[in-house]
Amino acid sequence: MRYLSDIIEGLAFTELQGSADVEITAVVFDSRKVVPGSLFIAVRGTVVDGHDYIEQAVEHGAAAIICEELPAHVTGEVDFLMVADSAIALGIVAANFYEKPSSNLKLVGVTGTNGKTTIATLLYQLFRDLGYKCGLLSTVENQINGTIIPSTHTTPDPVALNSLLADMVDQGCDYCFMEVSSHAVAQHRIQGLTFAGGIFTNLTHDHLDYHKTFLAYRDAKKAFFDGLPKNAFALTNADDKNGSVMLQNTKAHKKSYALKSMADYKAKILESAFDGLLLNIDNEEVWFRMVGTFNAYNLLAVYATAMLLDQDKAKVLTSLSKLPGAEGRFDYIVAPNKVIGIVDYAHTPDAVQNVLSTIHGIRKGDEKVITVIGCGGDRDKTKRPVMAKVACEWSDNVILTSDNPRSEDPAQIIEDMKAGVDPAFKRHVLSITDRREAIKTACTLAKPGDVILLAGKGHEKYQEINGVRNHFDDMEELVALFKEMN
């Protein structure tokens, strides 16, 4: 039994109308989910304002309302709490309602533009292999001790987030590793959580449709580190110029990792091939199953985190050397005629360049690189020409196609991308709206030894067109086509 007085602990409110002794059965911010006894938080979203649904929440049986301003007319017996920011209040009361689950395990957050999913997934796999019970909150999927829970957002809303963390605590988890998106920080989804540590990967062009400026995007990431407690660790990539920015105001223990700069944890690439990496990591030579410089950074970040969590060095390196990484991140297959296919989630200019530069660093001769790439609809339009430009600079042939067009015209998205194509490269660029046909064309163009990169969708098993998610899997398409290549 939970009372309002219990779940508003630590919440700054300006006014209380009614009694704080009312029993609360659920915490919700969607009026359609209100059941009798609910606490409804009226949050101002980017599309709708929860204040417009207060009356509906009361009609459905809400026992109490948290809001920033009182409605003009409300009938029925209900308590009101006035706060300055309902989104912040939601995080605090959600954590309290589920009895602050993040305080009952070690929660480690990973933020940055690229590498979040890989690092969080590797940490989850590593610590389970080391014998711990763990939880994972990621873009690909959420997991609790091997049980998969579908993921809809990089970072869930505060209610779903605390509910998942509570389930992890109930199942005896020692650790949880989670991605922390810039949206989640800006929208206060991680408010009320207690982190044992934070990891910064890198910062490049992304999500400017939401944050508007790169500075605002960077500051959203930085706010995560600003909020870490003094007994936590803050681990940053010293080779990224924004790494030091993340540490400026944090109270946490400051640590760094790097391949090039001076840092607390260092690694060096000794060999790089399509089937793995040989790294000197903390003065130990280890072969890893993952590929590319970007994964060297990811592996080093995971190793450093394990050391900061007091794990045994030899056991950590042995376990890491066996792990495959996250689905849809540089997944590669080879056709019978030796054409190499790579599926990668790269959907930012920097990520595309990382993957393509890795391919160039590994290929031995004059093999062609054919890149199939699109950009998502209803997302940051400014990166579209940049994505195409990068793909052209690092590929022999480029096929511009659809990613998830969502509500936009796929042909117009491709036109936006073509603005970044240098006139001298235009004869090497094809535009094929249908992604399946684009992949098929890439396979037709490829000769033995050539490399086909399918960029953008990675692990996704759907393509979203006009609000409908149709089954589509890049790797599935590639496997079927490769069977026909002799």
From TrEMBL:
It comes from the Bacteria. It is found in: Cytoplasm. It catalyses: UDP-N-acetyl-alpha-D-muramoyl-L-alanyl-D-glutamate + meso-2,6-diaminopimelate + ATP = UDP-N-acetyl-alpha-D-muramoyl-L-alanyl-gamma-D-glutamyl-meso-2,6-diaminopimelate + ADP + phosphate + H(+). GO terms for molecular function: ligase activity. Its EC number is 6.3.2.13. InterPro entries: Mur-like_cat_sf, Mur_ligase_C, Mur_ligase_C_dom_sf, Mur_ligase_cen, Mur_ligase_N, MurE/MurF_N, UDP-N-AcMur-Glu-dNH2Pim_ligase. ATP binds at G112, T113, N114, G115, K116, T117, T118. Pfam families: Mur_ligase, Mur_ligase_C, Mur_ligase_M. Residues 328-458 form the Mur ligase C-terminal domain. A motif (Meso-diaminopimelate recognition motif) lies at residues 403-406. Meso-2,6-diaminopimelate binds at R379, D403, N404, P405, R406, G456, E460. Carboxylation is probably crucial for Mg(2+) binding and, consequently, for the gamma-phosphate positioning of ATP. Keywords: ATP-binding, Cell cycle, Cell division, Cell shape, Cell wall biogenesis/degradation, Cytoplasm, Ligase, Magnesium, Nucleotide-binding, Peptidoglycan synthesis. UDP-N-acetyl-alpha-D-muramoyl-L-alanyl-D-glutamate binds at S31, T154, T155, S181, Q187, R189. Its cofactor is Mg(2+). Pathway: Cell wall biogenesis; peptidoglycan biosynthesis. Residues 23-84 form the Mur ligase N-terminal catalytic domain. The keyword Cell cycle applies. Catalyzes the addition of meso-diaminopimelic acid to the nucleotide precursor UDP-N-acetylmuramoyl-L-alanyl-D-glutamate (UMAG) in the biosynthesis of bacterial cell-wall peptidoglycan. Belongs to the MurCDEF family. MurE subfamily. HAMAP family: MurE. This is UDP-N-acetylmuramoyl-L-alanyl-D-glutamate--2,6-diaminopimelate ligase. The gene is murE.
